[in-house]
Write a structure and sequence with these properties.
Elements (H helix, E strand, L loop, with lengths): L2 H20 L2 H17 L7 H25 L21 H7 L2 H7 L4 H12 L4 H8 L3 H18 L7 H17 L2 H7 E10 L11 E2 L1 H17 L3 E4 L7 E5 L5 E10 L2 E8 L14 H13 L1
Parallel strand pairs: 1-6
Antiparallel strand pairs: 1-2, 3-4, 4-5, 5-6
C-alpha cells in the first residue's frame, strides 16, 4: 500500500479524533489536511502509520484547541459544536463509545477539560489507544497520561446523566416531538418536555438565535409551538435527521436552503435540552445556506397576520 493509500485508509479515524477534540467539522478537516502535509514531508517511515498519524492529528488539534479557547471566550452568545451528519469512522467493537462521544452533550462536557485531558480521554476511552501511544501523541509520560485519564474520566462521569434513553425510546419521543412541532400543538409539546428543559441557540452574532436561552416546559412549548408553524407558513420545512448520533432535524427554507439544525437530548422519557445551530459559519458543510435574517423577518411578518 502506498503512503497516499495508507493515509486515505486512516482518514476517517483521523477526522473523528480531530472532531471530538475540536467540536468543529471545518477545523477537524484542516487538522487532517495538516497531518497529511506533515506525513508527506516526513524523512523516515514510521513503524506504525496509524500510531504516527493519530499522534500528529492529536498534536495539531491540541494546538488549534488552545487558540480556539481564546476565540470562544469572545464568542457572541452560547457556543455549540458544529453539527455532524455522519461520523465517517466505524468500529463495531467500540460503537457505544463512538456514538456517545459525538453527541452534543458529550462534546460540551469535553469543553470543560483541559486540552491534554481532552486528548487523553478521546484517545483512551473513545478510540481505545494504549498508554504508550497516547504518551507519544501528547508528549507526556505514561504515568502522567494515566493521571490525566483518571481526572478526565471523573469530570466526564460527573457531568453525564445517570440513565440514558435507549435508541427506540429516544427515536419514538423525537417523532412525537416533531409531529407536535409541525402541528403547533403546544399542549402536546409540553407533555414531552422535562420541567426544567432548556432551549439554546448558537447564532454567533451572525444569525438570529436565543442568545440567553429559554427555560422551562411552558416557555419552550409556547415558543416552539408558535414559531415553527410560522416557519411552515412561509414555506419552510423541518426535516427530522440524526445529527451527532442524536435525534434532530434540519430546517430548510422554501427553496431547500439550510436555515439551521436542532438536536434533542432525551432522558427519563422526556426531552431535556433542545440545541439549535444557526451560525452560518458552522453549517456550510451541510449544504447551501439560507439568509437566516431574511427568514426571521419573514416569520415576524407572518406571525403578525
Amino acid at each position: 500500500m502506498t503512503p497516499t493509500e495508507e493515509f486515505q485508509d486512516l482518514r476517517p479515524l483521523l477526522f473523528s479524533i480531530a472532531y471530538r477534540l475540536l467540536g468543529s467539522v471545518s477545523e477537524a478537516e484542516d487538522a487532517v489536511q495538516e497531518t497529511w502535509l506533515r506525513y508527506q514531508t516526513a524523512t523516515t517511515r514510521p513503524v506504525s502509520v496509524k500510531a504516527y498519524l493519530s499522534a500528529v492529528v492529536t498534536r495539531v488539534s491540541i494546538d488549534v484547541l488552545r487558540s480556539a479557547r481564546v476565540r470562544r471566550e469572545e464568542y457572541v452568545g452560547p457556543w455549540l459544536p458544529e453539527p455532524l451528519a455522519t461520523d465517517p469512522y466505524d468500529d463495531p467493537a467500540r460503537s457505544a463509545e463512538l456514538a456517545d462521544s459525538v453527541s452534543m452533550a458529550a462534546l460540551l462536557l469535553l469543553e470543560r477539560l483541559s486540552p491534554l485531558e481532552r486528548a487523553v480521554f478521546v484517545l483512551r476511552d473513545v478510540f481505545g489507544f494504549g498508554f504508550p501511544e497516547i504518551a507519544a501523541a501528547v508528549g507526556r509520560s505514561e504515568a502522567a497520561c494515566r493521571q490525566l485519564a483518571v481526572r478526565a474520566r471523573r469530570h466526564m462521569d460527573d457531568g453525564r446523566p445517570r440513565f440514558a434513553a435507549d435508541r427506540e425510546e429516544r427515536d419514538e419521543l423525537a417523532a412525537r416531538f416533531f409531529g407536535a412541532v409541525r402541528d403547533g400543538d403546544v399542549d402536546g409539546l409540553r407533555e414531552l418536555l422535562a420541567a426544567d428543559v432548556q432551549m439554546v441557540g448558537d447564532g454567533g452574532g451572525k444569525a438570529p438565535a436565543l442568545a440567553k436561552g429559554v427555560y422551562g416546559a411552558d416557555n419552550v412549548a409556547r415558543l416552539v409551538g408558535s414559531f415553527m408553524p410560522a416557519l411552515a407558513a412561509i414555506g419552510a420545512a423541518i426535516e427530522p435527521q440524526t445529527l451527532n448520533g442524536q435525534p434532530g432535524a434540519v430546517v430548510r427554507d422554501r427553496d431547500g436552503a439550510l436555515i439551521g439544525t436542532m438536536t434533542l437530548d432525551v432522558l427519563d422519557g422526556r426531552i431535556q435540552a433542545i440545541r439549535s445551530v444557526v451560525n452560518p459559519d458552522k453549517l456550510h458543510h451541510l449544504g447551501p445556506l439560507s439568509d437566516a435574517w431574511a427568514v426571521a423577518n419573514e416569520v415576524r411578518r407572518a406571525r403578525r397576520r
